[in-house]
Specification:
Blueprint (H helix, E strand, L loop, with lengths): L10 E7 L3 H12 L4 E5 L12 E3 H8 L3 H5 L4 E2 L3 E5 L4 E6 L12 E3 L2 H14 L3 E5 L2 E7 L4 E7 L2 E12 L6 H6 L3 E16 L10 E5 L5 E5 L4 E7 L6 H4 L2 H7 L10 E15 L3 E2 L2 E3 L5 E2 L7 H20 L10 H25 L3 H16 L4 E3 L33 E4 L2 E4 L8 E5 L7 H10 L1 E6 L6 E4 L5 H9 L3 E4 L5 E5 L4 H13 L16
Length: 539
């Protein structure tokens, strides 16, 4: 056998096919949750051409949970405001960051270098005792029977059969696993050819310090400030232009002549892509799951393609762990698609909307667009917080509902992650907490013995705002993000899922015990609400 096949076990709890950022996060999470995981990728090294460069706070928080965000923190750069400009240079719209303190402690949007992220993620995989990482190995789905998944692994003409309980297909837009399952893609009607090039500029001061979406019908383009001296240009290809010729240095410099003086900057990498808007009709068949580009493909105009894929991994992996360890019924896994698909469709729809603004080639329609958007700017409606364009919360899935069927007590929203004061200094909240569920309550609260036993069986940790005694962990936040959030949602106690999304919050008499009861029932597959009359779908 070849080296890539040596030492493999016959069966794994989970196999992750594809070790890009999404697959690497998924495998790291599964290993952290105690599943014996095999992570394989046909490519021996990270993809070398331009891919994602924008990352948001929810993604950084997920990567933080496996130590990857901390490893690249010094290398990430700010995500500048984005200006949509007409051909004449007039600002048509401005997307901005919210002010500090940031709700998840990370910048709401940042820039990064994907190969650096992938290297850090793979280093984390190699360091985990629960994960086997094999590169240069092709995986082919042979069959799945609802219980066991059977795979053929191949390298240099040598094959090996392995089985697993769960298969996570993170194998990209052309996903062989998705094709093998015969799952079709829904076309959301966006298909445009673009050139993408990353350039290390000699003097960033000669270029704008904001991101620019050039809405010029002669040739739409995007300019993005990356970390350090890295700048990216995305340029629409015009009819008759040969993609193979457009990646040549002479073509790139010709297209970017108005931006870069002759000889300025070093072209690091370039590629041509067709930007698509696609969603898989199904994201799961029994114990096989689609994640990332295998499940959805997003135009880049919101920088959400990778971010949505990382959310897939964060959403699914804790659920797999709950079922694997016997704490939840298998139907919990149905909530993966229920929760993720609407959010992804919303992100794709918003990216399409922004893309259509940028990509208008008809001069008359572009002129009308400019008049309308300039009027919105003049009326004070043209500046938008970027995060407000995304779906803020899960609206259906494994969350607590009130008797009217509405999400209860902040259910479905990301729980804040403030900076907190600890004996070890200033830390992000999640860094001070164990893996798993979190029940956070008001100052001075302490569980009784029965609550401690129930929480231990469920894998729930206790915390309280302000000073506390074990087993309750004290949360001393620098700002008032958590206390303000709880006041906003009218809750005295909140139960937070392992992916740091709120399961639900309650007030009234003994809300902590009530939340534990509802979690017990939900994990057993019972429909629950804050009044035990509503429904908790997907559970």
């Amino acid at each position: 056998m070849t080296e890539a096949l040596d030492g493999l076990e016959d069966h794994y709890d989970a196999v992750v096919v594809g070790v890009g950022p999404v697959g690497a996060l998924a495998a790291n999470l599964l290993g952290r949750y105690g599943l014996r995981t095999l992570a394989v990728d046909q490519a021996p090294a990270p993809y070398h051409l331009p891919r994602a460069m924008g990352i948001d706070d929810q993604s950084l928080r997920l990567l933080q949970s496996v130590g990857v965000a901390q490893a690249i923190e010094a290398e990430i750069g700010p995500y500048r405001s984005s200006e949509y400009r007409s051909a004449s240079g007039a600002v048509l719209r401005r997307l901005v960051q919210p002010p500090e303190p940031y709700p998840l402690s990370w910048p709401p949007y940042a820039t990064f270098v994907q190969p650096h992220l992938e290297a850090a993620a793979r280093a984390a995989l190699a360091a985990s005792p629960n994960i086997t990482l094999r590169l240069g190995l092709r995986a082919q789905l042979l069959e799945e029977d609802g219980e066991t998944v059977r795979l053929r692994l191949s390298a240099n003409g040598t094959d090996r059969i392995v089985t697993c309980r769960h298969l996570l297909a993170c194998d990209g837009a052309s996903s062989p696993v998705r094709e093998r399952l015969g799952i079709a893609l829904e076309d959301m009607c966006f298909d445009e050819p673009w050139l993408v090039t990353d350039i290390m500029v000699d003097d960033p001061g000669l270029l704008p310090d904001v991101n620019i979406q050039s809405c010029d019908p002669a040739r739409p383009s995007s300019y993005i400030c990356g970390p350090g001296r890295l700048r990216r240009w995305e340029v629409m290809l015009l009819p008759g232009e040969d993609p193979a010729e457009m990646v040549a240095e002479a073509s790139i410099r010709r297209v970017l002549a108005k931006w870069l003086p002759e000889g300025q900057g070093t072209i690091w990498r370039a590629a041509t892509y067709r930007f698509h808007a696609l969603v898989a009709e199904r994201w799961r068949r029994n114990n096989v799951f689609l994640l990332g580009d295998a499940a959805h493909q997003t135009p880049p105009f919101m920088a959400q393609g990778l971010n949505q894929g990382l959310r897939d991994a964060g959403n699914l992996c804790w659920k797999l762990a709950e079922v694997f360890h016997g704490r939840a019924v298998p139907s919990l896994l149905d909530s993966y698609e229920t929760e993720r698909k609407p959010a992804t469709r919303h992100a794709i729809g918003m990216a399409k909307t922004l893309g259509h603004i940028i990509c208008e080639r008809d001069p008359a329609k572009a002129a009308e667009r400019d008049r309308r958007m300039l009027a919105e700017m003049d009326a004070g409606h043209g500046t938008v917080v970027r995060q407000h364009l995304l779906q803020a919360a899960i609206v259906d899935g494994f969350i607590l509902r009130d008797p009217a069927g509405q999400p209860q007590g902040g259910a479905g929203y990301p729980f804040p992650q403030p900076w907190v004061r600890t004996g070890e200094g200033r830390q992000r909240l999640d860094e001070t907490l164990p893996t798993g569920w979190l029940l956070l309550s008001r100052p001075g609260w302490h569980p009784d013995t029965a609550q401690e036993r129930r929480a231990e069986a469920l894998g729930v940790a206790f915390a309280a705002l302000g000073p506390a005694q074990p087993p309750v962990q004290a949360i001393l936040e620098e700002d008032t993000l958590v206390s303000d959030w709880m006041a906003q949602h009218g809750v005295a106690a909140v139960l937070v899922r392992p992916d740091r999304v709120v399961f639900g919050g309650l007030s009234g008499e003994d809300p902590e015990a009530s939340l534990l009861t509802r979690l017990e029932r939900a994990l057993r597959g019972h429909a629950v609400s804050a009044g035990d009359a509503g429904a908790l779908t997907g559970a």
